Amino acid sequence: MSIWTTRPERPGDAEAVHAINAAAFPTPAEADLVDALRADAEAWIDGLSLVTEAPDGTLVAHALLTRCHVDGHPALALAPCAALPAHQRRGAASAAIRAALEAARQQGESLVLVLGHADYYPRFGFEPASRWGIRAPFEVPDEAMMALVLDSDQPVPSGVIRYADAFGV
């Protein structure tokens, strides 16, 4: 039984989500990225910004899925994922990621991409994106660009990822 409760972000959560991302990373870039993505109607998808609550209701982690494209086909980008430093390595971010992936699956999404640590994301089912011929629009180590197919009945597009403008790539 997990001590964590996850739920979709609510309108009043933006400040706490910003604080989680600002605390989890060395610069405010990720926190600012979330704010920019939230303001982008083409990238933001209601229900795919998930937060983790501690038992006292405090928000302690966040995972965000936003719209990206692979060769013109819709996909999702998982970024950023964060937990407050005091709650890192305790499953709070993992709970948010699992909840976000399940929400995406329930919304009928079929492909999620992540650029991240090759020793972390495979636990959620991610594999090197190169397996499907999917590439980042910039140079990254093959093992760091990963994909998760949520709906194996849908064809998986190949090609270069086009991220939302807020990513700046």
Automatic annotation (TrEMBL):
Superkingdom classification of source: Bacteria
Ranges of residues in domain N-acetyltransferase: 4-151
PROSITE patterns attached to this UniProt entry: GNAT
Transmembrane intervals: none
UniProt GO molecular function: acyltransferase activity, transferring groups other than amino-acyl groups
InterPro entries in UniProt: Acyl_CoA_acyltransferase (IPR016181), GNAT_dom (IPR000182)
One Pfam family in the UniProt entry: Acetyltransf_1
Protein name stated in the entry: N-acetyltransferase
Native organism taxonomy: Bacteria, Bacillati, Actinomycetota, Actinomycetes, Kitasatosporales
